[in-house]
Fold this protein.
Amino acid sequence: MRCKDLRRQLGTYNYAAYDPQELPQALREHLAACPACRRWVSRTQHVSDMLRGLPSDEVPQDFARSVMARLDQESGSVWERWLHWLVGPLRAPAPRVPAYQLVAASCLLLALLVGGALYTAHIHPTDIGHEVVVVADGGDPGLAGTLVPAGGSRLRRINGEGDTLKIDDLILRHENYELGKPLGPDPSVRLVSETSY
Amino acid sequence: MSTGPTPGLEQIGRLVQRAQGGDAAAFEELVDTYKSKIYNYVLRMLGQAEMAEDVAQETFIKAYSSLASFRGASSFQTWLYRIASNLAIDTMRRRKHRQASYSLDEPLDISGGQVERDIEDDAAGPERQLQSAQLQRRVSEAILQLSPKLRTVVILYELQGLSYEEIAEIVGAPLGTVKSRLFNAREHLKKILVDELDLELPR
């Protein structure tokens, strides 16, 4: 064995558990015969010991609380805070429901609440992941253009009674406040029931 | 928050799931569990307490906003370390000129608050040396002179006690590369401690 080989092997050794007697025989034999490598091992082990001897520092007081305060602060606008109050935190989306979809669904809820007299709506924030049956009351089927698939590029048409949409498949065209606009005063689409899937 | 024993892996998994569902209290418990490891890791990487606190907090904030992308393929701890590593290295890059102009007159914020550097001789034996604040400062300074890549590996292995496999996952490098970086880091540290800080190593 060459010095170089021994140093490569012991250069990445876990010196917290160093026991020369447990080294492979080839290493032990080389060490026994090579004072330079013994010195090299001793120094490497010493450096490792010094590193492991470094103490941990105390975490600043109220660290966790500061993190939570920053999260709260960074949760954003009045609008987001309102949604937070309404549906809970948005910054920790569940795997199947990304935050933007939650925002979109909440916007849908808001719009429906605002225009409540015009709709028969049964959507609640907890309905994310539910399937909603959409009924078109005649009129312009293009009305469904206010809702677009999650991909965002193609408008979703509602073809008539019994047509279904999944709430978490939808986002609003402009994410926030546009839902009510194209519907006009006489909406021909209403959401009348929902089922779990 | 909790000061009891560290939660087991199963309990961590449940906390992560609850946090993913938007449970802020569960996330706060996760912060409480890992804050010491992450803060100390970042502190050793950066050498400045204030900056380390900021980066450690940022680590948890980033983790919170990315919880949906955590699939559990790696452990939550490994995932946190990965975020902390990236943020710490970004911070180092932004402040590179300050690292390069590191001065012996500048206070170092590690172990026991701010202390002035002092390179007087310490004639005590190795065991006492290990406990001496002065030696600890010298070793801390030496770590800060390593390149970010070597520093990351040596801190994670020697100070944080992680395995090669965990480190490989954190730094996104093969095991062989991790070992090679540890080898180089130890060799550099020996050289720095002896040549630049005049420390006496075993003969």
